[in-house]
Design brief:
three-stranded antiparallel beta sheet, 9 helices, 8 strands, five-stranded parallel beta sheet, binds 2'-deoxycytidine-5'-monophosphate, globular, alpha/beta
Length: 221
């Protein structure tokens, strides 16, 4: 690609955004920014420091003393790789709750906008097309039915040797969708100019090819 193309991929948890975004970025030879990992890194810091995100002064001090960055596609918290610590249920829960807090969103959105300046990039999250990169050249909203997303998650957990209830996972997914879509600041939503892709009945390869076709078309516009 010769032109700068910023690709914003939004959608609910479990739609396959990060798996797909990573492959697409690698195939196109451009950087990938996982904004969910940034909210997870802040959640990890909240847990580690015992900071109450409802205490405005304590939160501001913590945020001032915190650095979130990427190196080679891996998130860094205060200069240290954080990926190995941010996918636990405890961090997921804290990230889901604390990502609704305005001061946290303001800090991370400013960083994300700076990362998306003047270069081609794939960025995934919940509010990339509607807020962070409103003027992105290519916007995609990647969705899948709650049942399919629950089945994918169950398979992942079963492969780790865990016993799971698909019905319970589906219920949790629906609750998280509701929370993400109904929060006050930058809720999950499809941008008017985003292309909607439903991955429920598609393989990873099919989703990657679909997205690359959409990107090629947008890059040539
Ligand atoms: O995509 P994920 O599950 O890693 O995201 C972790 C949490 O961060 C999730 O509860 C939604 C939130 N999030 C957000 O509010 N805005 C983003 N751009 C990305 C993630």
């Amino acid at each position: 690609m010769n032109n700068i193309v910023r690709i914003a991929i939004d959608g609910p948890a479990g739609a396959g955004k990060s798996t797909i975004a990573k492959i697409v970025a690698k195939d196109l030879g451009i950087d990938y920014i996982d904004t969910g990992a940034m909210y997870r890194a802040i959640a990890l810091k909240l847990i580690r420091t015992g900071t109450d995100y409802n205490d405005g002064a304590a939160l501001a001090a913590m945020l001032d003393a915190t650095e979130v960055d990427f190196s080679d596609g891996h998130v860094l918290l205060d200069g240290e790789p954080a990926e190995g610590f941010i996918r636990t249920p405890e961090v997921s829960e804290m990230a889901s709750a604390s990502s609704a807090v305005l001061a946290i969103r303001e800090k991370l959105v400013a960083l994300q906008r700076a990362m998306g300046q003047r270069k081609s990039i794939v960025m995934d999250g919940r509010d990339i097309g509607t807020n962070v990169l409103k003027d992105a050249e290519c916007k995609i909203y990647l969705d899948a039915s709650p049942r399919v997303r629950a089945q994918r998650r169950a398979l992942e957990l079963q492969q780790k040797g865990m016993q799971v209830s698909i019905d319970q996972i589906e219920e949790e997914i629906r609750a998280r969708d509701y929370r993400d879509m109904h929060r006050e600041h930058n809720p999950l939503a499809k941008a008017d100019d985003a292309v909607f892709v439903d991955s429920s009945d598609m393989t990873i390869e099919q989703v990657v090819e679909t997205l690359k076709a959409i990107i090629r078309e947008k890059a040539n516009e």
